[in-house]
Design brief:
alpha+beta, binds zinc ion, 8-stranded mixed β-sheet, Cytidine Deaminase, domain 2
Length: about 180
């Protein structure tokens, strides 16, 4: 059984908690092959005080735009999944963020990613968590409703850690 993955929220008062199920759903879309395209979806869970608990996520759907270096969540099924979660939980579970993949070992957000994320927190008016899944690790961050957050946290997958450290002796890895 995998442990939950967690990282501090942007303001560092709380934690982003990623349940093992979410991690497992995402890992199926790691861009390990040469023709792989980016994948993504929404994060579903609860805002618990300063913490963001992610308990589920959607996966790429038919009408999403998927390219080797781009993902645009266009399918209405993602929002439908959020509404279903809200309805089934009397509003305690809902939209808490976004995830997508990058074709790089330990990913960093692009300028477009950061701009999209700031727009999303302004629209939702509450904190959101953001996850980018790379081939050897992941990036996590959260932004508050004003678009403020930390620089984010990078983690590498256990089986890739030695390789990542060898290639990036100065990389900032957070346990
Ligand atoms: Zn990106």
């Amino acid at each position: 059984m995998l442990e939950s993955i967690h990282a501090p929220t942007g303001d560092e008062r709380g934690l982003i908690l990623l349940r093992p199920r979410v991690f497992q759903l995402m890992m199926a879309f790691r861009q390990t092959g040469p023709v792989a395209t980016e994948a993504g979806g929404v994060l579903i869970g609860s805002l618990r005080g300063p913490h963001i608990e992610v308990i589920d996520c959607t996966q790429p759907m038919q009408n999403d735009l998927r390219r080797s270096h781009a993902f645009d969540r266009r399918d209405a099924g993602h929002v439908a999944a959020i509404h279903a979660a809200m309805k089934g939980s009397a509003g305690t579970i809902g939209y808490v963020g976004e995830w997508h993949t990058h074709p790089e070992p330990v990913p960093s957000p692009s300028g477009q990613d950061s701009a999209n994320w700031r727009n999303l927190v302004r629209q939702t008016k509450h904190s959101l968590a953001f996850v980018i899944l790379g081939t050897d690790g992941l990036f996590m961050n959260s932004l508050d409703e004003r678009g403020k957050g930390s620089a984010g946290w990078k983690l590498c997958f256990p089986e890739s850690c030695n390789e990542v450290l060898r290639k990036n002796p100065t990389i900032n890895l957070t346990p």
